[in-house]
Design a protein that fits this description.
26% of the residues lie in helices and 27% in strands. It is of the alpha/beta class. The radius of gyration is 16 Å and the shape is globular. Helix 1 crosses helix 6 and helix 2 runs parallel beside helix 3.
């Protein structure tokens, strides 16, 4: 589908609910194989959900998303939006105590595998989840999966949700774990890694839509 047509389709399917601002480094393609990062400022959980739903609509079986964010940043809200875009049943909750949940699709398309890796400390614990067995037929979202699940695929979207008060010091993210306001701004950082996302026209069109 041509990029212009996809932008029109996105505009009709996901009308803007509140303003957002999109930043990227001038002259750099945000969807490149070397993992260029981009940032989106969203105004509260409603727009977090809205953006995630739009992203979910362009995902396909085999996609891996690594999701990081402190308490109240909107990780579950983000995954709920992804689920709507993918086409799974509503009612996604955090898999904190069961570690992993599979949400079957309600239409033709991939299932959603939702993992909370916060308590997983070793490669063996990750292997025990057997995520490889469902990876090719599902969209896999791993909360707190940074430095734990990258071996699953040579392509992934690394997504970090930050609330005001969080900061990046060197290569470390320092989070504000105080209870947040649903209406406060969040920063969504996206790093597209690997050949799956190299100059992907759908993701490029989505980003164009949200920064317009």
């Amino acid at each position: 589908m041509p990029q212009e047509a996809l932008i029109t389709r996105l505009s009709r399917a996901f009308p803007r609910v509140c303003p957002a601002v999109w930043w990227r480094e001038p002259g750099v393609n945000p969807v490149s194989e070397n993992g260029t990062s981009s940032e989106l400022i969203v105004n509260g959980v409603e727009e977090t959900h809205h953006f995630a739903r739009s992203l979910g609509a362009i995902l396909r079986a085999g996609d891996l998303l690594v999701l990081t964010g402190e308490l109240g940043a909107g990780k579950t809200t983000f995954t709920q939006g992804l689920g709507l875009g993918i086409g799974v049943r509503e009612g996604i909750i955090s898999p904190t105590f069961v570690i992993s949940r599979i949400h079957p699709t309600l239409r033709e398309g991939p299932d959603l595998v939702h993992v909370d890796a916060y308590r997983l400390a070793t490669a063996a614990e990750i292997d025990d989840l057997d995520l490889e067995s469902s990876l090719s037929t599902s969209v896999t979202v791993v909360e707190w999966g940074a430095d734990k699940v990258e071996q699953l695929s040579d392509s992934r979207l690394e997504i970090v949700l930050q609330r005001p008060g969080s900061a990046e010091i060197g290569e470390e993210l320092v989070f504000d774990f105080s209870e947040g306001d649903e209406d406060e701004q969040r920063t969504i950082s996206i790093r597209a890694v690997g050949p799956r996302w190299d100059n992907d026209p759908q993701l490029a069109a989505l980003l164009t839509h949200f920064r317009s």
